[in-house]
Specification:
14 strands; alpha/beta; five-stranded parallel sheet; four-stranded antiparallel sheet; globular; phosphoprotein; WalR-like; Sig_transdc_resp-reg_receiver
Amino acid sequence: MTANEAAHEGATVLVVEDEESIADVLAIALRYHRFQVMIAGTVREALTLAERTRPDAALLDVMLPDGDGRALGRELRARRPDLALVFVTARDAPAEIVGALGFGDDYITKPFNIDEVVARLRAVLRRTRPADVLPQRPPLRYGDLELDETTYSVHRAGRTVELTPTEYALLRFLVRNGGRIVPKEQLLRHVWQYEHTPPESTVVETYISYLRRKLDALGPPMITTRRGVGYGLA
């Protein structure tokens, strides 16, 4: 077992999937990799389980018999801002993906490879449930931006910026690189833990647009684009 795997051993995952065969496969694989697993087949069951057990992550099917998995994700995130959200869906249209990534941390399309599901879940947990959190860490600063490394909160010009865990991880990496342009491939490797760049991936561009929308509302534009290369801070 690697250090990263050991760090997240015992993390609790809520699997919300109404197809029993898929839920069983996910549960067996996750338990094999030492995750604690709870299974819900409906929105109602998921909300009840989440309230009672406070999971670290949720794997959510988008289409559920009594509601929309994305709406469920919003409700779960409202209750637990630090909850990792991974959507599992048969829909692969760009609009569907962008909608899911607007507040979730990753998405996986069906049919999926179970090893990829485990790897992607671990990658999300590394961002949302880091094993190396120290009691106190000095804040990261860049211009009027401040990232609190203890509470994982962000302020610009003294005003709070509400970010998802993945948005925070992306911004932190840009801040740590100062004014340097960071190639897209490096962002995928360090923020999303991708060993190989997925073909046609637009996840970086999508999250950069989310960050811009939130940061630019509080001051001058901060994120610069070097077309065909990557992104940095102005």
